[in-house]
Amino acid sequence: MIVSGQKEHQLIEETFKDQIDHPAVISKKLEQSGQFMEAVRSLIDLCGDDPGRDGLQETPYRVLKAFLEYTEGYREDPKLHLAKTFDVDHDHKELVLVKDIEFYSICEHHFAPFFGVAHVAYLPNEKITGLSKIARMVDGYARRFQVQERLTKQIADAVEEVLEPQGTMVVLEAKHMCMCGRGVKKADASTTTMSYRGIFEGRADLRAEFLSLLK
What we know:
Structural class: alpha+beta
Helix content: 40-55%
Strand content: 15-25%
Order of helices and strands: HHHEEEEHEHEHEHH
Number of strands: 7
Radius of gyration: 21 Å
Low-confidence stretches: none
Number of helices: 8
Shape: flat
Largest sheet: 5 strands, mixed
């Protein structure tokens, strides 16, 4: 068994504080964190550097801490951010658009970052939610091991499930370091994904209106 130090113990307890009353769970997390840091040391050695030199001694812990932050979306249900709603006046059911929501995620294929902006729109039916709640929901799904296509769908599904609007439309624009910084190395390449529900499915004019607002 690989034993973690006091600093790692504190990190694990803070990260998984909702499970602090389950010692067996915390013990397993501590063992996994030790194994992970040992694997990072082996990776550094494999790549040709010395994991014991000054600049790299603390790197395994830093990588562990970073990945727990990158994936904090697993420790919440993002759609709950939308649960606080407000009734809509019957004469006010116009398009609600929150655009240019910055997000940062990790590609599940290479563990390389991808990042960009999300544009989320819906046509209210009976309920609306706070604008900041939409941004928090996007972050919750982005802070996981992801692919952009699934992330786009999860955001649209959450709006549909909680707000029950007439329609929902989501567009994500992102750069992927697994494509920009490795492989084909196309630094200027970006990826756009789209998902729409409800009234947007049969109304090309509404989709065009939404897309025109992004320009």
